[in-house]
Amino acid sequence: MKTYKKLVRDKIPEIIEKDNLVPICRTLNDKEYQIELNKKLVEEVKEYLESQETEELADIVEVIYSIVKSKNISLEDFEKIRIDKVEKRGGFDKRIFLEREEEKESERT
User: Which pTM does this prediction carry?
Assistant: First the structure.
């Protein structure tokens, strides 16, 4: 017997059954779902940081999409929010690493 106590993808119970095991599951309420999605996001980010595999990035995106949907935001609206932020503040394409900020010379004296 293996204990998980975590949010899993929708088809995991079927996969467990195919292995001749019995999955013991329950459906989370809204509050529990939000909490478990946040835990899952942390879990998937850790897995990506350890492996650096693209498949783990796909898992992160899937969790993010689930969080967005659980907040009753359409993926289209979410994408608009993302694009708006890129237009206002930029993306990360230029690889800028900010060390610090300093006052201009004229403002120091």
Answer: 0.86
